[in-house]
Amino acid sequence: MSQTPIPVTTPVKVLIGGLLAVDAAFGAALALGLVRGLSPWLIGGAYAATILVAIVGYRASRARMLKRGFASLQDLTIGDEGIRLPAGTLSTRVVPWSQIADVNARRSARFGDGYLRDAIWLDLVTGGGVESSVQCYAPRGRLTPAPPQRRQFEQTAILEPALFNAVIERLRKELRHRQLHAQLRDTPRIR
To answer: Fewer beta carbons below 10 Å: N end or C end of the chain?
Structure first.
């Protein structure tokens, strides 16, 4: 699965665009000879300062987006009884470990912001599935709109692809551990 970049917040996009415009205007003024007598160190320092501000803004924006992704994972919790996940706007559902067959990624059906994304699904031993509100980030241009008749719950956690895949792997490991533990507990001990 190819990595998609973490989205940058709009204020940082405006900041970086403004800095690029100022740098381009300053460069054009230097090239046309409108600004004379400035030290090369001053010119280099001004360009370095704008680049530094852009990098700090970008890093702060990425950190904020990652923190928001981690904070929204509170909707999906692992417990001794099973996996608790949202069942609607203000309700949750616990799916017992014994009812879960696998954890995988499929297109969202109930949760989202009006676009279809990959979401974490719990496949049940009965053949059905339960969708979680945890979804994978994809650029807006690659998303398809959800059908208009579908009921949407906007309570979603949209994670970057690497974190999304890590959550799936963690849930699979926990499921395998619980299944193995249940098998060992059910087998009789021979002495």
So the answer is: C
Looking at residue 156, the DSSP 8-state letter turns out to be -
Annotate 89-151 with three-state secondary structure.
Answer: CCCEEEEEHHHEEEEEEEECCCECCCEECEEEEEEECCCCEEEEEEEECCCHHHCEECCCCCC
Q: What is the pLDDT of residues 140-158, one digit of tens each?
A: 778 777 777 666 666 677 8
Kind of pairing between the strands at 129-136 and 157-159: parallel
Residue position matching structure tokens 């600004």 = 35
- Output the pLDDT for position 4: 47
Across 6-26, average pLDDT:
82
The average pLDDT across 8-19 equals 82
Between CA 26 and CA 20 the distance in angstroms is: 10
